[in-house]
């Protein structure tokens, strides 16, 4: 287990779609070691999620975990989840504007995400999962799976005036966003 360097925006590897992982590959030491490193690296960086493409491994694997995260104190908890070959299907047209950050991008900005999604994926042992995710957790899934297609959240920022550094977000935008998103999460019951 080790912490790997996280690629930053501008690195072409972040823009290359990841390849599907076969059952044989998933069981290999190489991929199981990569998964261990993804979890270590995500936790070391206080990320809510990390995609394999962000450490230069071009495969369709993401890790997610939210406990009490200093980067995102308003996010509901996500138990440690490793998703292999994840597929997302929006369940309806409802969207919410979420202020997002990314370990590969030194900015935050507002992105519209589907509120209700179905996710299908394999866990690290190859077991198939079919689940419904909602709200901020659904947003985290969409952000991470975007990485596997070479898409960064800033590609989806429609109003570029919402872009800010983390420091400026704290000063000018944090309170308003947390108030809005907490009210949204309460309405959603998640
Ligand atoms: Zn990201």
Task: Give the key terms.
single chain, alpha+beta, 28% strand, globular, 190 residues, binds zinc ion
What does it look like?
The chain has 190 residues and is an alpha+beta fold. The protein has one domain (12-188): Peptide Deformylase. Helices cover 31% and strands 28% of the residues. It contains four helices and seven strands. The strands form two sheets. The protein has a five-stranded antiparallel β-sheet, sandwiched between helices. Strands 4-5 form a two-stranded antiparallel ribbon. A hairpin with a 5-residue loop joins β6 and β7 (128-134). Zinc ion (ZN) is lined by residues 102-104, 143, 147.
Topology:
Layout: H1 23-27, H2 29-44, E1 49-51, E2 61-66, E3 78-90, E4 95-102, E5 105-114, E6 116-122, E7 128-134, H3 135-148, H4 166-188
Antiparallel strand pairs: 1-2, 2-3, 3-6, 4-5, 6-7
The structure holds zinc ion (ZN).
Zinc ion binds near residues 103 and 143.
Quick recap:
This protein has 190 residues and is α+β, with helices and mostly antiparallel strands.
Output the CATH class name: Alpha Beta
CATH H level: which superfamily? Answer: Peptide deformylase
What hetero molecules are in the model? zinc ion
Spans of at least 5 consecutive residues with low confidence: none
Shape: globular
Q: What is the distance, rounded to the nearest whole angstrom, between the alpha carbons of the first and last residues?
A: 33 Å
Radius of gyration based on Cα positions = 16 Å
Note the total helix count: 4
Biggest beta sheet summary: 5 strands, antiparallel
Class from helix and strand fractions: alpha+beta
SSE order in H/E notation?
Answer: HHEEEEEEEHH
Q: How are the strands ordered across the major sheet?
A: 1-2-3-6-7
């Amino acid at each position: 287990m080790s912490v790997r360097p996280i690629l930053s925006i501008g690195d072409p590897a972040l823009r290359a779609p990841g390849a599907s992982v076969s059952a044989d590959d998933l069981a290999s030491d190489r991929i199981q070691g990569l998964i261990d490193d993804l979890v270590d690296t995500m936790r070391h960086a206080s990320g809510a999620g990390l995609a394999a493409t962000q450490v230069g491994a071009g495969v369709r694997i993401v890790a997610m975990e939210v406990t009490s995260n200093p980067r995102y104190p308003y996010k509901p908890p996500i138990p440690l989840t490793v998703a292999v070959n994840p597929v997302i299907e929006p369940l309806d047209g409802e969207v919410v504007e979420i202020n997002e950050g990314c370990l590969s991008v030194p900015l935050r900005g507002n992105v519209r995400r589907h509120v209700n999604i179905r996710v299908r994926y394999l866990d690290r042992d190859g077991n198939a999962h079919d689940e419904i995710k909602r709200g901020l957790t659904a947003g985290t899934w969409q952000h991470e799976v975007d990485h596997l297609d070479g898409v960064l959240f800033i590609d989806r920022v429609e109003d570029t005036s919402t872009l800010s550094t983390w420091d400026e977000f704290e000063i000018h935008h944090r309170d308003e966003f947390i108030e809005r998103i907490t009210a949204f999460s309460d309405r959603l019951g998640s």
